[in-house]
Design goal:
By secondary structure, the chain is α/β, with parallel strands linked by helices. It is built from 9 helices and 12 strands. α3 packs across α9. The longest helix has 27 residues. The radius of gyration is 25 Å and the shape is elongated.
């Protein structure tokens, strides 16, 4: 998904600055050089760990995140909740005493989920848990009733292209890794549409399931028909695969009513700590404030955003502590 990024820039503090890890044409660092340079930061690393684990920063990032997630809730791109989250963070970063806190305007996608359900009609009645994928188009108002074809890969889909026309493609792809398997979520609708399918249902990209479908972003391609697409649970994908293997005819009624609006104005939220000795050197840490609408976004990516904030807070605290002892 094209996300709204919560971005923090931190420049090296003068007392922590060392040689740049970057290389230039005049000097090629060896592994030993880099190892020695890193070892030179042992005392600083220990100070950061002590502050974060045992000092006044203990649990601080978790507590900040808990307040934020409870107060704001889900933060879908283009939503009012995301606007509220950006205002919250802008104020919080200023109160934390960070430098150059500012907003950078940009446009972000605006998609809303709407009503959605899926029901198996044959070979028996069964309610299928689904979560529509971001950017999905809607079904007709009455939904889509169609026979299902179950495949385990894009290769199998292409081999059975003639069978897929006019059907709902169910992908029961095995989970290998997130990076490898997520392509079925990203491109499943496109590949199904290429062979004439009317919709696609994708097994959730997960190594473990408690009948819990996952959502996420998916992409359409120019000159390929846009068909509705959603994720289903691992359990339902496996069940339909077994039914298909046994020769059963599977018919599903799918209804989805999402809406896509014009891109919305949003903002990157930026804060800095600027060093005095190497102000031109930049270390970038970041996370994204937006989150999906079916949870609080505490881990994806509230955790990443608040860890990034905490990194700056820790450096600021250590800097203040070093000055207090001079």
């Amino acid at each position: 998904m094209k996300c709204v990024f919560l971005i923090f820039f931190t420049n090296l503090l003068p007392q922590y600055a060392g040689k740049s890890l970057g290389r230039d044409d005049s000097y090629q660092k060896t592994f030993e050089d880099t190892e020695n340079e890193i070892a030179g930061y042992t005392d600083i690393a220990k100070a950061i760990i002590d502050l974060a684990v045992h000092g006044k920063a203990q649990n601080r990032s978790y507590e900040r995140l808990a307040v934020f997630a409870d107060a704001i809730g889900p933060r879908l791109s283009g939503s009012k909740n995301l606007d509220a989250a950006i205002k919250y963070m802008f104020s919080a970063l200023q109160k934390d005493g960070l430098e150059n806190v500012h907003l950078e305007p940009l446009k972000v996608p605006h998609w809303e989920r709407g009503e959605e359900f899926a029901v198996m009609l044959e070979p028996r009645n069964h309610s299928i848990a689904i979560l529509g994928l971001g950017n999905s188009v809607a079904t007709p108002l009455e939904g889509i009733k169609a026979e299902v074809i179950v495949v385990a890969s894009f290769d199998e889909l292409r081999q059975r292209a003639q069978e897929a026309k006019g059907k709902i493609v169910v992908y029961n792809e095995p989970f290998i890794s997130y990076g490898e398997t997520v392509r079925y979520r990203s491109l499943g609708a496109v590949e199904a549409a290429k062979v004439g399918a009317v919709a696609s249902l994708i097994r959730s990209v997960a190594s473990f399931s408690i009948y819990s479908p996952h959502t996420g972003w998916q992409n359409y391609q120019p000159d390929v028909p846009r068909i509705p697409t959603a994720c289903i649970s691992v359990e339902d994908a496996e069940m339909m695969s077994r039914m298909s293997f046994q020769g059963a005819k599977i018919v599903v009624h799918l209804k989805m009513r999402p809406k896509t609006y014009p891109d919305s104005l949003s903002f990157n939220t930026v804060a800095e700590i600027v060093g005095s000795k190497y102000p031109e050197q930049i270390v970038l840490v970041s996370g994204h404030l937006d989150s999906w609408d079916v949870g609080q976004g505490a881990m994806d990516d509230g955790g990443g955003a608040f860890i990034s904030w905490e990194a700056l807070s820790l450096i600021k605290d250590l800097d203040e502590s070093s000055w207090s002892h001079r």
